[in-house]
Design goal:
Mean pLDDT: 77
Number of helices: 7
Number of strands: 0
Low-confidence stretches: 167-175
Helix content: 55-70%
Structural class: mainly alpha
Order of helices and strands: HHHHHHH
Length: 178
């Protein structure tokens, strides 16, 4: 190749490098973690994989330019590993897995609330008994020793029942009162 043929190629390379510097300026001015933290999770993965691929490709090209067989070097293994990550990300994107609006499992929520409220009642009883045993109960509480806070969980008895979902409590009462 003659020197006159290389001049337009070098000018095109110089223009491409200038364009690349402009495009990469937002990433090079701040830390990569700061730039990635503002992105959604999938975009973060893509950014990290792309940056890794760019670095590995530059190393691969450097080795090739210096006459080293880059395909037998560890950099080539890393390039193939990074390409596998590209495939994994592409599979996630194409899988159509989208998180829609979250739904509430009313039966499970009812069971959790019912058990949690019962647990609070039992905890209150234990605490009261421990305080009485240790003599930590104040005079006012001794007067009301039989007054243990109770929580009425009867209204939650049908919350976990799938057969009753969708039926309002009023309708239920009317049916049972007849």
């Amino acid at each position: 190749m003659e020197a006159t043929d290389l001049v337009p190629l070098l000018e095109a390379l110089d223009d491409d490098i200038d364009g690349l510097e402009g495009a990469l300026a937002p990433l090079t001015k701040t830390a990569l973690t700061d730039a990635a933290s503002r992105l959604p999770l999938l975009d973060q993965a893509q950014l990290y994989v792309l940056v890794t691929y760019a670095i590995e490709t530059i190393l691969f090209s450097y080795l090739r330019l210096n006459g080293i067989n880059a395909k037998e070097h560890a950099v080539f293994k890393e390039l193939t590993r990074v390409k596998q990550y590209f495939e994994k990300i592409k599979n996630v994107e194409n899988s159509g897995f989208k998180r829609g609006p979250l739904s509430l499992d009313k039966a499970a929520a009812g069971r959790i609330l019912k058990h949690a409220l019962n647990g609070n009642q039992q905890h209150a009883l234990k605490t009261k008994e421990q305080q009485e045993a240790n003599g930590q109960v104040h005079d006012q509480s001794k007067k009301r020793s039989n007054d243990v806070p109770t929580i009425d969980t009867r209204h939650l008895s049908n919350v976990g029942n799938p057969e009753d979902q969708g039926a309002s409590p009023r309708k239920k009462r009317k049916k049972t009162s007849k």
